[in-house]
């Protein structure tokens, strides 16, 4: 099935999203760095600090892709499970980081027991899941009582000049760059649309509350282009 059919306004069919990321896997991290001008590394650093991994903790990194987001958690001494539903991403990750534990899994039906992890996290993957609250509920289920969740996701800019520039950038520049540098340029049209359609910071926070996460908070990065939400079970 062509990834041209993967559009943000439609329900996100799991097999379509999986195929899209399978095709992008070998160059995915490089393309993200290019598309964001390298600022993704700063966002990742803040996300890791928000997770605050500790030695011996069990942490689930959902939608981990090639494992780039999992590496700093493992370096902090945590026992990380890098979970993704893209076989291409998992294969690429196992080649790059053989020391990590990569597991295939669907976010809406996670292959883990209740109360397994001290912390769960997902970066830039929640909006690719067709039922946000179901995914947040599954993450709640596999988290130990007292454990935490950290979600990094593109969001709604709060600073007017950034908001205007961002609204111009998303539909025009990202797809254009995709055609220049990506083996699967239609994926970047989907990326732009999925970001534009994603709920803002407060609305997403309410989805956490709806499935019983407590003490929900968020931090805006780069004027709200990205928001890092954190909550506890």
Automatic annotation (TrEMBL):
InterPro entries: SAM-dependent_MTases_sf, UbiE/COQ5_MeTrFase, UbiE/COQ5_MeTrFase_CS. SUPFAM superfamilies: S-adenosyl-L-methionine-dependent methyltransferases. Its EC number is 2.1.1.163. GO terms for biological process: menaquinone biosynthetic process; methylation. Keywords: Menaquinone biosynthesis, Methyltransferase, S-adenosyl-L-methionine, Transferase. S-adenosyl-L-methionine binds at residues 66, 84, 106-107, 123. It catalyses: a 2-demethylmenaquinol + S-adenosyl-L-methionine = a menaquinol + S-adenosyl-L-homocysteine + H(+). Pathway: Quinol/quinone metabolism; menaquinone biosynthesis; menaquinol from 1,4-dihydroxy-2-naphthoate: step 2/2. This is Demethylmenaquinone methyltransferase.
């Amino acid at each position: 099935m062509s990834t041209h059919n993967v559009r943000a306004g439609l329900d996100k069919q799991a097999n379509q999203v999986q195929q899209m990321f399978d095709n992008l896997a070998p160059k995915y991290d490089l393309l993200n760095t290019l598309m964001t001008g390298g600022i993704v590394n700063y966002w990742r650093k803040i996300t890791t600090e928000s997770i605050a991994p500790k030695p011996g903790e069990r942490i689930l990194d959902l939608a981990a892709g090639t494992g780039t987001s999992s590496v700093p958690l493992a370096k902090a001494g945590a026992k990380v499970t890098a979970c993704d539903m893209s076989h291409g991403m998992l294969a690429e990750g196992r080649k790059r980081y053989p020391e990590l534990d990569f597991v295939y899994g669907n976010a809406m039906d996670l292959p883990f027991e209740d109360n397994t992890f001290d912390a769960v996290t997902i970066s830039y993957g929640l909006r690719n899941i067709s039922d946000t609250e179901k995914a947040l509920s599954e993450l709640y289920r596999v988290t130990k009582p007292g454990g935490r969740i950290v979600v990094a996701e593109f969001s709604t800019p709060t600073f007017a000049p950034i908001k205007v520039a961002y609204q111009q950038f998303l539909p025009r520049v990202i797809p254009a760059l995709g055609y220049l540098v990506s083996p699967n340029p239609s994926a970047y049209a989907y990326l732009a649309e999925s970001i534009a359609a994603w709920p803002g910071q407060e609305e997403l926070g309410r989805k956490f509350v709806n499935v019983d996460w407590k003490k929900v908070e968020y931090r805006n990065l780069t004027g709200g282009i990205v928001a890092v939400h954190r909550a506890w079970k």
